[in-house]
Amino acid sequence: MIEKKILKKGQVVIPKDIRDLLGLHEGDKVMIDIEGDIIKIRKKGNISEKLKTIAEKHDKKINTQEIKKSLKDRYQV
Predict the structure, then answer these.
(1) What's the predicted TM-score (pTM) here?
(2) Per-residue pLDDT tens digits for 39-52
(3) Domains in the chain: how many in total?
(4) Rounded CA gap, 35 and 9, in Å?
């Protein structure tokens, strides 16, 4: 666990090692949530990129148009 000090304007710096590990860069967006007394910060990702990564991991082709159609059909969006 890493301890950081809260700066004057309520800012907390995410350590460079963690930014590098998550691929966070200036201008990227993060999601912040609270669970009890725990603050969770996670990288905001593009669902298409995540699906492509999963498909590549399982050595499968992916077509985002087919996925969008399937989701629309399933949830009648």
Answers:
(1) 0.54
(2) 999 888 766 666 77
(3) 2
(4) 23
